[in-house]
Amino acid sequence: MQEQDPSAKPRMVRCPACGGDSVYAPSNRWRPFCSERCKNLDLGAWASESFRVPEQAPPEDQPFGDPKER
Ligand SMILES: [Zn+2]
């Protein structure tokens, strides 16, 4: 069973920083953010708010929010 469908659309998530569409795929190096700017914005907010965020990346296969809940 292969999941290499060339017509498969990339998973879209909501950018946590600006709320815009963001491509959640390896091609987007800033995922789940839509851009480097948004990623930096979010990191800056974290740093100024509290420093208790663990240095642990979320699992790659975990979608940002459940699309079924929409
Ligand atoms: Zn963004």
TrEMBL record:
It comes from Ramlibacter tataouinensis. Belongs to the DNA gyrase inhibitor YacG family. The gene is yacG. GO terms for biological process: regulation of DNA-templated transcription. It holds the Pfam family YacG. Zn(2+) binds at residues 15, 18, 34, 38. Residues 49-70 are annotated as: Disordered. Keywords: Metal-binding, Zinc. Its cofactor is Zn(2+). SUPFAM superfamilies: Glucocorticoid receptor-like (DNA-binding domain). Inhibits all the catalytic activities of DNA gyrase by preventing its interaction with DNA. Acts by binding directly to the C-terminal domain of GyrB, which probably disrupts DNA binding by the gyrase. GO terms for molecular function: DNA topoisomerase type II (double strand cut, ATP-hydrolyzing) inhibitor activity; zinc ion binding. Binds 1 zinc ion. This is DNA gyrase inhibitor YacG. Gene3D superfamilies: Erythroid Transcription Factor GATA-1, subunit A (3.30.50.10). Interacts with GyrB.
